[in-house]
Amino acid sequence: MLRLMNQHSPEQVESSPPLPSNLDTDELRGVFKAIGADPMIGVAILGEDGYIYWVNPQMAQLFFGGKRTPQQAMGHTLSELYPAPWVDERLKLLKRVADTNKPVQVRSIWEGRQQYSWIHPLEAEHPEPMDPDEQHGGPMPPRFLVITKRVSGEGKAEELTQADGFDKVDSEMVDLGPLDVLTSRELEVLALLGQGLAAAEIAKVLHRSVKTINTHRENIGKKLKIDDRVKLANVAQRAGLRFADAERERV
Asked: What distances in angstroms separate CA 162 from CA 106, 151, 157, 165, one per listed residue?
């Protein structure tokens, strides 16, 4: 049976008390089942090498495509399903959590939507080697609980980032989904539109003329097939798009 590791910093222990010692395996399984059944939350258990031990349907849809089932993802490694730069970044985060024994909160843009993932270290109460006949045989490597939630809008995101006890990281990789048709400059303009800035204010931020900004906005509208400024702002807010996302590496 796996459990969340409690060897955190003093402030983490104070804000996140350890689980009751009298909880039995069936009760913990019930808690995990309830979390995994939440329609708004993706849950996964990963190995340090990116091996996918378990995902719930929501996580399979969030990360592996809307038609992929958990069974199609489990038993594979991240490197089999994702581009190398994205995988390398995630493996480094898993190693960071394993080395520091401190959970990490990761913000990312995936399929054009902002989402947050919380990576927690797990430990086995009675660690034993896995059956060598299994596909991923050998001694049991460190494992991690990953909980992911899509979050639109800056306000909701700010509430999430106020949580204590987590190292907070912005992914340098983005999957822009339908927004991938935009140039970096157009993404910057769209992000600023999402913040409620008018053309004159955006022009000042980007050191461009108002005419140039309006041209960018028109081009964005044509590419996204949206001709309304308010609707464009809503697209940016739904995606949780930030100014800095325009320069992140696209995958």
From this structure: 13, 14, 9, 10
**pLDDT tens-digit profile, the chain (251 residues):** 444 444 444 444 344 466 676 767 787 778 777 877 777 899 999 999 999 999 999 998 887 766 778 998 899 999 998 899 999 999 999 999 999 999 999 999 999 999 999 999 987 554 455 554 455 555 667 899 999 999 987 555 555 555 667 899 999 999 999 999 999 999 999 999 999 999 999 999 999 999 999 999 999 999 999 989 999 999 999 999 999 999 999 99
Of 175, 205, 228, at which residue does a domain stop? 175
Are 98 and 61 members of one domain?
yes
For the whole model, what pTM was predicted?
0.81
Judged by DSSP in three states, 126 sits in coil
Say which residues have a Cβ less than 8 Å from residue 43's Cβ, sequence separation at least 6. Answer: 35, 36, 55, 56, 58, 59, 145, 146, 147, 148
Using CA atoms, how far residue 22 sits from 4, 19, 29, in Å, is 15, 9, 14
Q: Indicate if 56 and 133 belong to the same structural domain.
A: yes
Same domain, 147 and 213: no
Range of the domain at 65: 2-175
Claim to verify: residue 164 and residue 187 sit in the same structural domain: no
Q: Which of 155, 175, 195 is the last residue of a domain?
A: 175
